[in-house]
Amino acid sequence: MPTDALRFDDVTVCYGPTPAVHHLSAELPCGSMVALMGPNGAGKSTLLRTILGWHRLTTGSITIGGVPCRKASRRIGYLPQRAAVDWDFPVTVRDVVAMGRYQVLGPFRGFRTEDHAAVDAAITEMGLEWLADRQIAALSGGQQQRTFLARAVASGADIFLLDEPFAGLDPNSSADLVRRLQTWAKAGRLVVTVVHDLDLARRYFPQALLVRASLIAAGPTAEVLSARNLTRAYGASYAAERSMVTVPKPAPAPALGLSLKDPRVKQMVRKDIP
């Protein structure tokens, strides 16, 4: 796995005249788990979609190992918010995971031996072998998340952008997801995850990026989620309440991703997704 970094230099993204993200600079090294945090409307999802090339930069640049993101798109996997996916679409787990190969192959090339092998390996990595032929509508929330993560793995991505992956998951599924993410980070992958639960971020994510349109702080989670920074992001009353929470040291554990840019997968998501 590459050991370089995802870098933001003076990034500004606007909706019309209004900046959703402005003048943000930070560097996220591969081999880490980063909690992307901030209040609603802070620009978290906008930042992820800009990395994917779905929003145009107003100023600045986003690079991976010094290469513009648009030229390194095959390294990026994306997991959308669960509410954005049509889970009743009639496809199996294997069908979804196979979609991860389309951006590698292009729209007019058939599957090769190595493509089938990549799909099988991703299904195995996510522990989905016994579910491979099951319709995605019949899966639990955690199994559905793992299916889309396997899709990103099959694409060959090593940088994963996850938009609220823990939303709606039960505690066991959340713990399983955390373990898989930890394994990915240990393997040199970069996992950038939108997280709303401060306790979960403190417990499991070594790095954090705190934003409120502009950058508030980036670096080790304990430093980023200080009372002062939380006040700047969320307001004084919320920060005072949450900064007093103590979190026990986590037991060792592991990892995961997804890309929705190929045309075939867009039919699985609602029309409001770019």
3D structure, described in words:
With 274 residues, the chain is of the alpha/beta class. The chain has one domain: Rossmann fold (3-Layer(aba) Sandwich), CATH 3.40.50.300. The chain has eleven helices and ten strands. It has a six-stranded mixed beta sheet, sandwiched between helices. Strands 2-1-4-5 form a four-stranded antiparallel beta sheet, with helices on one face.
Reconstruct the topology from this structure.
Layout: E1 5-15, E2 18-29, E3 32-37, H1 44-51, E4 59-64, E5 67-68, E6 76-79, H2 93-98, H3 102-105, H4 113-125, H5 141-154, E7 159-162, H6 171-186, E8 190-194, H7 198-204, E9 207-212, E10 214-220, H8 221-224, H9 227-234, H10 236-242, H11 263-266
Parallel strand pairs: 3-8, 3-9, 6-7, 7-8
Antiparallel strand pairs: 1-2, 1-4, 4-5, 9-10
Helix pairs in contact: 4-5, 5-6, 9-10
